[in-house]
Design brief:
The chain has about 80 residues and is mainly alpha-helical. It has one domain (about 10-84): lambda repressor-like DNA-binding domains (434 Repressor (Amino-terminal Domain)), CATH 1.10.260. It is built from 6 helices and 2 strands; from the N terminus they run βαααααβα. It has a two-stranded antiparallel sheet. The chain is elongated.
Amino acid sequence: MGRVTADVHSDVAAARRRAGLTQKRLGELVGVSRQTVVEIEAGGYNPSTAVALRMAVVLETPVGELFALADGEVADLRARRDDE
C-alpha cells in the first residue's frame, strides 16, 4: 500500500489567539519548538497524535475542533467505505 496523506485543516492559530498565547509560549507548554507551531498553523506539518492532544488540553479546545479533515476528504472516505 502506498503512503497515505491527509489534507488536515488546522484551527490552532485561532484557538491560540483566543487563549492569549504566543506561538513560542504554546510550543513551550506543548513541548515543541515555536517553528513547529508555525508550521502546524500554516498547514505545512501534521502533528503527532500526542502533540495534537497536548495542544487540545493547553488550548482547552476539543482536538476535533483543532484538527479536521477537509470536507472533500471526508466525502471521499465515506464513499470508499460505502463501496465495500
